[in-house]
């Protein structure tokens, strides 16, 4: 059996665990537990542990590393959440030793606990897409998660980039000023999420519809609904272009719930980003798990080197 990494993707209402084969870069098995972010710390950690053990059932001894994808703000080095709006029970709690204690003797060779590494979920979405697509060391990739909000990750040379002149602070685009007269005022997230589609649909159709309903109308041939998606794609591409040029991106990957309608707006994004390959996510909800595994594998390789 080849070496594996245990990956966790922590969300506001659930946690997903996956056992990732480090040779094939595929997820062998997943497990999911529902648990709300407002639950006490012990309840949250118990759910994470249950999902992890189910995902590792029968293969736990093959696990050589553990990676955890978490929303931010989060101090990955110390393993402490800095969120106040979510996970109040975990605020400034040292999670690494608490999770390790629950997994000790059940995950890892000879009863040890592999090192646990943490990473931002949007960053690891981007890293997972890069890693599972062949891990080209020359690639410069931007990953966006389009859902209730906007998440972003920048990957260059197989590493997540969160600082420097060619990326926004922390690698986070959501709160960057839009500042484009063609698109409108506000911040990027105002023009790049499900709420944006609802607003554009209301302007076009005269009624506010959930993005998924608007997409169905567009797929059924509604001219105004299709125009709303084209406007969304043009706006997204226009606002992303300065950052794609600054970063020197050759690939832009769109994930999140909105990306299921990629065919309706993706071509407009691509037209606004000449020189970039713009594609839909290939791994979707598995991408953060793959990214967490890649992060963990890189950390271990660095130790071994």
Automatic annotation (TrEMBL):
It comes from the Bacteria. SUPFAM superfamilies: Actin-like ATPase domain. Keywords: Plasmid. InterPro entries: ATPase_NBD, ROK. Pfam families: ROK. This is ROK family member transcriptional repressor.
């Amino acid at each position: 059996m080849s070496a594996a990494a245990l990956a966790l993707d922590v969300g506001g209402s659930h946690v997903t665990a996956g056992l990732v084969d480090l040779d094939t870069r595929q997820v062998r098995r997943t497990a999911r537990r529902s648990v709300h972010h407002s639950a006490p710390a012990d309840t949250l950690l118990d759910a994470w542990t249950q999902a992890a053990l189910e995902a590792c059932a029968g293969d736990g001894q093959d696990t050589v590393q553990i990676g955890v994808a978490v929303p931010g703000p989060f101090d990955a080095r110390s393993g402490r959440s800095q969120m106040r709006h979510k996970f109040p029970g975990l605020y400034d709690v040292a999670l690494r030793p608490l999770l390790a204690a629950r997994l000790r003797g059940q995950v890892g060779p000879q009863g040890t606990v592999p090192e646990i590494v943490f990473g931002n979920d949007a960053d690891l979405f981007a890293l997972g897409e890069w890693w599972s697509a062949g891990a080209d060391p020359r690639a410069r990739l931007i990953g966006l998660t389009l859902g209730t909000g906007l998440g972003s990750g920048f990957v260059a040379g197989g590493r997540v980039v969160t600082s420097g002149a060619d990326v926004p602070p922390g690698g986070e685009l959501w709160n960057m000023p839009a500042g484009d007269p063609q698109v409108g005022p506000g911040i990027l997230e105002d023009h790049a999420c499900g709420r944006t589609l609802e607003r554009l649909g209301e302007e076009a159709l005269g009624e506010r519809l959930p993005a998924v309903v608007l997409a169905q109308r567009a797929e059924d041939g509604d001219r105004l609904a299709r125009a709303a998606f084209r406007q969304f794609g043009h706006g997204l591409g226009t606002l992303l272009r300065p950052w794609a040029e600054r970063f020197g991106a050759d690939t832009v990957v769109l994930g999140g719930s909105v990306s299921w309608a990629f065919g309706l707006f993706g071509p407009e994004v691509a037209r606004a980003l000449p020189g970039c390959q713009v594609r839909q996510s290939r791994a979707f909800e598995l991408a953060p798990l793959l990214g967490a595994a890649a992060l963990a594998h890189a950390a271990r390789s660095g130790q071994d080197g």
